[in-house]
Structures are given as structure tokens and as C-alpha cells.
Design brief:
The protein is an alpha+beta fold. Helix content is 44%, strand content 14%. It contains four helices and three strands. Strands 1-3-2 form a three-stranded mixed β-sheet, with helices on one face. α1 packs across α2 and α2 crosses α4. It starts with a helix and ends in a 10-residue tail after the last helix.
């Protein structure tokens, strides 16, 4: 689903990533290296609702337009994904990672 979502949102936002990948992250849902135009997505997103994955993709792509979490960043997020605060809050309420389960 990631390639299709990336293609969709790159077109909408008007940016292009050079690369993307998925990895386990303990403290973040995603990250963006603006200079390399590379985004990383947390493997744990596979366990979340699709709109949460989509929100993180949009969030990281918007960083290609605005590096910081400032008023411009917020305005761009509002423009492209008006419900983003609800998706952010949903992810913030969820555990970032499920530890090992013992029975």
C-alpha cells in the first residue's frame, strides 16, 4: 500500500521523494531526511488503521516543503489533510510498539 499512497500524495502535495523505506523505530512513527529526500516509516504502522499510515506519509512529505513544525507546516497539513489532528491524536494514544507477549 505504501507505494500507491506515496504516489498519490506526492502528486497532491507536489513533492517527490528520492527514496523511502520501512524500519522498526522505538520513538517515532516516521522521519524525513530533507536533504536526501528520503522518508522512513515505522514498521508498527502495519498494525494501525490505513488513515494513520496515510497521515504519517503526508506528514513526512510536508516536511519536504517545510522542515520545522511551525505555523507554515500546520497550515500545509490543514490544506492537504484537514483531519490530521484527529489522526495524530489517535496515534499518540496508541502504543508505539507492542512488546513481547508472554502467556
Amino acid at each position: 500500500m505504501i507505494p500507491e499512497l506515496l504516489e498519490k500524495w506526492e502528486r497532491i502535495i507536489g513533492v517527490q521523494t528520492a527514496a523511502w523505506d520501512v524500519k522498526r523505530m522505538k520513538t517515532k512513527w516516521g522521519t524525513c531526511n530533507v536533504e536526501a529526500r528520503r522518508i522512513w516509516l515505522n514498521l508498527e504502522l502495519v498494525k494501525k488503521q490505513i488513515h494513520c499510515l496515510e497521515y504519517i506519509i503526508v506528514h513526512e512529505l510536508v516536511h519536504l516543503l517545510e522542515r520545522n513544525h511551525n505555523d507554515r507546516f500546520t497550515a500545509l497539513m490543514d490544506k492537504f489533510m484537514p483531519l490530521w489532528p484527529a489522526y495524530r491524536d489517535e496515534l499518540n494514544r496508541a502504543p508505539l510498539e507492542h512488546g513481547e507477549w508472554e502467556y
